[in-house]
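Sharing a chain and its predicted structure for anyone who wants a worked example. Both blocks are below, sequence first, tokens second.
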Amino acid sequence: MTLRQDEQAEQVPTGAGLGRWLPVVLGMLTIFGPVSVDLYLPSLPQLRDDLQVAPSLAQITLTACLIGLAAGQLIVGPMSDRFGRRRPLLIGIGVYIVAAVLCSVSSSIEMLIAARFVQGLAGATGMVIAQASGRDRLSGPRLTRYYGSIAVITGSAAFVGPLLGGQLAALIDWRGTFFVLAGVGAVVWLTCALSFTESLPAERRVKHGRTVAGDLGSLLRDRGYAAPMLVVGLTAGALFAYVSGAAFVLQETFALSPQQYSYVIAAGAALLVAGGLVGGRAGARWSPLAVLPFGLAIAGTGAATTIVAGLLDLGLPVVIAAILLLTAGGGLIAPSATALALQRRPEIAGSAAATLGVTRYGLGALAAPLVGAAGSPSTVSLGIVTLTCVVGAAIARRCIPRTG
């Protein structure tokens, strides 16, 4: 970190904290990504059959949402640095509700893919502003613990999403699932309209003389930001490849029902929550950088075990154990890597959070369809894609400066 950046960081007030209810509101904003992705995963095979498309094309509906989540953050982050957090937030959630309704009435795969892209684009608003608003108020160990809490809430949504989705699949079709997402969006919009207060006063906003490209360029040139950003993105790539491929591997290779599949995914999400809790507390107590090797080792073991289980036909219990290791490691990594990246540039917290989100969901969008690129997803292809992502994250971790 340069001397100028240090001075800017010291000048940014962190406030008295988040208050009693604001963490709940900020946490609700983080559910857009995981709920939008996870709730309809048990219905992917049903969607494929209903619209009469190949599995890889059905997976593109997931990829479209992830691309939208990535692109939307790149738009919303700089906007929130310039115009504040509250106004872009309410507009974005409103568009999300409309897009969810359009998904539910889609008559073709092309229409569904387009609506999913818009849904992701709008849903990105909440995730960026939850991170940026927390950074507006907190720093140091408190910031690391906050991102641990965010990881827990995100993991909780990932727990509820597939579990609820599996139960919904027994009651309603995939179209009804998107009506549920619209309802979730409406609840969050109303909560934010009543409870979310502006965290970025006018005097701290980015002035019109600065350019988005200049801010993003300065972030990417900062190794202390860019390296943990890649750790976050590549770890997310492994997790999104897992949630995309596991829908087919567990239900088709191992003949699990949508409800049984949802229980496995929920168990993985529970370990993601546990990893986030441990990672946030450990990073705050020692250092975020010290936590990363442990999380990467656990996630790498899970990914490698998936390959071995597929090659040697070791059966469902071993595959489930590998999945649980992968998600536990991912949860451990997330708070520390996020805190390492976002503590660097508090004066452009929105742009920093957006760039981090673009990397997370952009790499997730690239990794998700690779599991089925050679045909129907298999245990081996799932393991290869996830292990490649984890190894890449481990290489990026080695590039993080040890000071600053």
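Comments welcome. The CA atoms of residues 50 and 281 lie 46 Å apart.
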